Each structure stands twice: as C-alpha cells, then as structure tokens.
Description:
By secondary structure, the protein is of the alpha/beta class. Helices cover 24% and strands 29% of the residues. It has 8 helices and 19 strands. It is globular and about 65 Å long.
Amino acid sequence: MDRRTYLATGVAIALGGCTELGGPGESDTNDEHSSDSDESTGGTASDSDDADDSDEDDYPELVGTFDDFEDLDEWWTWQDIGSLQADASRSYDGSQSALLTSSTESDGQVRIRRELDEPIDVRDVAPGIATATDTDQGVVRIQLQDEDAHYVEYSQQIQGDMPLTRTNFGITRVRGEPDLSKVVVLQIIRWFGDDAEGQQWVDDFHFVPNIDPGKVMLQFHGGYETHYTEALSRLEEYDFPATAFVPTGRLRSDPAVEGDRLTRDQLDELAAANWTIGAQPATGMPLGNVDSDRLEDVIVDPIDWLSGEGYEDGARFFAFPASRYTEESYELVKEHYDLAFAGRSRSQGYAGNPHLCSRATASSPEEATELLDWTVEWGGITTIAFHQLDDPTALEALDETLASLEEHASAGDLEVITPAEMADEYVY
C-alpha cells in the first residue's frame, strides 16, 4: 500500500468510517488537400479506464479515444512540413504511435493533418493526446478546424525524456469564427525552433468533457510569507477559497528566523481561513535538480509532514516547481498523490491526466482580466498560480484577479473551486 492510500484510509478511520502559448514559426495558411481514403471518420470513442461507469451516460458522445494511430493512412504532413511515420517501438496503448520529425528543410516544425469524411461536434468537449519528445521541452498544439479553415487551437507545454503520456490541453487561440458544431479537420503542430531538428511522438487522440460555466482555482506557490501578509486579507475580503503549495523543508519555525518563507503559525492561520495546504518538494527545488537517491524522500516526505501537522486534506495534492518534471519524479508523484499541477495553459477541460493539471499565471492586471474573460467565453478550468508578492505589479495583478473574479462569480459566469473539487468532480 502506498502512502497516499494509507493516508486516505487513516483519515477515513479517524472520521468514523488543474497566458496564450504563442510561438514563432506559426502560419495561418491552410491549403486544401484531398484524402484518398473512403473510410468513415469515426473515432473509436473508447472510454478511459479511470472513468466511473455510472457517469458514462452523462458524457458527450465524442468523449474517449478518437484516433489510436494504429492506421496512419488518413494522416498526412501539411505542405510536406516535416515527416510522419509509424513507430512500433513506442506506444501509449496499442502497437504503435505516430512519429513526427522536423528538419532544417522543414523550418524547424512539423504539422500533421487529418480531414474527416463527416463533421464532428466539439462544442462540449476538449481534445488531448498522449505525447513525448526528444527535446528538453516544447509546446504542442492541436487545431480543430471547420470547413472555412477557421479554428480553435489548444496548446500545452511538455517536458522531454518522458514516455508517451496523456497531456491536458487548454484552448489558447481562436482564428476567425469557427463553427465548432462542424469540425472537419484535425491538425497537430510542433515547432522546434528556426531550422531545428527534433522528434515528437503522438498517440491516443482523445476528447474529454469541457466545463461550462468555467471554473477557476487560485493557488499560491512557494510558501512565501507574502502569501500571508498580502494575500490572506484580500482573499478573506472576497471569501474565495485558495491553495498554498508549500516546500515543507523551507518553512520557518519562528518570525525571528531570517527568510522570506511562511512561519508555522502563519501557515496555521491560512489553514484556519480554509486554505488548502498542498505539497511541493520539501526543498522547493525543481525536481530535475534533485539527486536520484534523494528524489523519493523529497517528493513523498511532505505527505507525512502535512498529515502529521493536521493538513491531511492538502496532502492529496502536489505542484511541480517551475512545471518541470522527469519520468522518475512524475511516476513518484503519480503513485502518491491524487492531483498534481504542471504545464502552462488556460481553460483545460476535464483532466484526462490528473497528475499534469494545467496552470497559468497572471503577471499583470491586464493578463488577469484576459485570463478570466477567456474562461467565461470558452469554459474549462483555469488555474491561476501566484508566486512571490513582493512588488506592486504582482499585487495589482492579484487585486485585479480578485475584483474581476468577484464580478464574474456574482453574474454566475465563473465559479471558484478547490483542488478537492477538481479531483472529485472533474477527472475523466
């Protein structure tokens, strides 16, 4: 039994019984191309093994795997940008994946495209794929286009040196006025950099339910004292729930101890104000900087510390510092936590992978307003993460976030949720 299961069991006995991701090299040109295939579009809308069978009838029809890339005949590289081939050595589920390769001749990017024989209605769903890359990190994009080549684009930042892993994409760009009830083209794009070479594996093109009206989570990362001195009173004014992800090994025992991190008493006051107290690595360091022989302790020890200090509810949740992770650290987090946050995207749908829930940042008042307005328009879950609140711009961004969020929440356009609500209600 892992520590997460042990902790959940112990709690039950004691109680009696988830910024636009822009990038250069992107063209909006979409030339027509005819497919030679006469087969139907139909995806294989298979259900996720993690889905609750009792809820299946409540999901939109498209939810599940749409294309498993076992047959690549319907996919082709747009304008011969990059190359596409099957790779039987890697797969998410099945016998192969699709390998996308860029080269200096393809201007450092690769695009693959599938035209559907019949349009699909994506108004109530969001797309995702399982993906992996041979580069350090990068941004992958999914476009859903109508017959006029108007599209919505979903994006996510991914890490290198990972196996094929399901990723939660958020909607980050719209071109024209796409008719989402009649999508006829699927396109996957990876830009590696000017004339850069690289490889991208994709598998399991799937859909998850979208969420309308949109949801927002407020998170404070790093365990900084300003989360107590600046954020707490502001959050109490609006009565919004929030989460503090704290590096447990960097908390101060006493205000007299020099440093900019929370004290134990300050953390208790946050918890008393109904903040969720979640976990970060005990050191607060990005996990790629931690020696392998210390990695498990750095990731798992915060569970014991949080539960021992009375923060059992938050011990279910983890935030990757700087959204960076490795295969080993990801697998440890997946084993011991119910929900984890990494990535850089807004308005994601249900979590197809609960251990890579996306988050965004509001570094200015204008960015805060745009994030919330976008979530009102397109739905989904937008998690807004704040870090050190030690300059006027950061505080102005927080103030604008809260004021704008109050306006939208009062109008019924947005709802503020907690990690527990996401884990219990919005995971597919």
